[in-house]
């Protein structure tokens, strides 16, 4: 899913879910093999920085969308770089790709599919609510 199309709370929830799902010990060896362990660390750190900025903004009731937006862009770049690297390795090695890589791609695709479905359901609910509104003319 394209994270920047979601609100900050939904983005953070989605990235926290991805970090939790992919941050398990079983993926550590795969990340090391792919050479993306540093990118995953960047993703985790950038998301934590983003969360801290949002919390600070809420507490101070200050408007700092550019700071939060800039950090979110870093988070999304890190995630995209990880996924691009994995896709390139699958393309390069095909059926001979490391089993950990194939499992990582399969699991990520499953997670992304569920997020897309959840977003589609939410859009459908929102559209249904719009259609159910009474209009007085």
Which structural class best describes the helix and strand composition? mainly alpha
Give the helix level as a range of percent.
Answer: over 70%
Order of helices and strands: HHHHH
Question: What's the overall average pLDDT, rounded?
Answer: 80
Distance between the termini: 39 Å
Largest sheet: none
Proportion of residues in β-strands: under 5%
- The global form is globular
Number of helices: 5
Radius of gyration: 18 Å
Number of extended strands: 0
Folded structure, characterized:
The chain is an all-alpha fold and 137 residues long. The chain has helices spanning 8-22, 25-34, 37-60, 65-93, 99-131. Helix 1 (8-22) packs antiparallel against helix 5. The longest helix has 33 residues, at 99-131. The termini are far apart. The mean pLDDT is 80.
Task: State the main characteristics.
single chain, 137 residues, mainly alpha, 5 helices, 0% strand
The gist of it:
The chain is an all-alpha fold.
Secondary structure layout:
Blueprint: H1 8-22, H2 25-34, H3 37-60, H4 65-93, H5 99-131
Helix pairs in contact: 1-3, 1-5, 3-4, 4-5
